[in-house]
Design brief:
Blueprint lengths: L6 E4 L6 H12 L3 E3 H9 L3 H8 L1 H18 L3 E3 L8 H7 L4 E5 L2 H8 L12 H19 L2 E4 L5 H12 L5
Parallel strand pairs: 1-3, 1-4, 2-3, 4-5
Helix pairs in contact: 1-8, 2-4, 3-4, 4-5
Length: 172
């Protein structure tokens, strides 16, 4: 039987999936993996560069493959890119996994990311675009989530503790 991630983290860009994912992995005594990092390593360029050079559709195809590979081969904590859940096959694959949706509101997103232009989908009107992205994606995150953990006004340690409690996982 192939390995299965212990926990999969989903949520919007800037929500803290990488930080919380690393803390969770540490607490659970397992490895951490981020599909965005996998894509950058495999492609030899940033996600923003892929978007600019090839467009969103090409990036989503690369992302889908990276997520499917990670889901089939990683047994620790896995963080997915913010838009990975847009793919129907990916959502179907996540069924049966422990999926934690890290949520936040737009004001928190502004504070955390500054909604900067290194984020290709937020280049023009960041606040409006972030709100629209979340309106389009929130129900997808909620649909696949085993647990929803709000991150607003919480430290990464608080969010990690809340995720462990929500999943009823014991620290290593």
């Amino acid at each position: 039987m192939s390995p299965v991630p212990l926990v999969v983290l989903v949520g919007p860009m800037g929500v803290g999936k990488s930080t919380v994912g690393q803390l969770l992995a540490e607490r659970l005594g397992v490895a951490y993996r981020d599909t965005d990092d996998d894509i950058v390593a495999a492609q030899g360029r940033t996600i923003a560069e892929i978007f600019v050079d090839e467009g969103e559709a090409a990036f989503r195809a690369i992302e889908k493959q990276a997520v499917h590979t990670a889901l089939a081969s990683h047994d620790g904590v896995l963080a997915l890119g913010g838009g990975a859940i847009l793919d129907e096959d990916t959502r179907a694959l996540l069924a049966g996994h422990r999926v934690v949706y890290l949520s936040m509101d737009v004001e928190e997103a502004v504070k955390r990311t500054g909604l900067n232009t290194a984020r290709p989908l937020l280049a023009v009107n960041p606040r409006k675009q972030w709100r629209e992205l979340m309106e389009a994606r929130r129900h997808l995150y909620e649909e696949i989530a085993t647990a929803v953990v709000p991150t607003d006004g919480r430290t990464p340690e608080d969010v990690t503790r809340a995720a462990l409690n929500a999943l009823e996982l014991k620290e290593a």
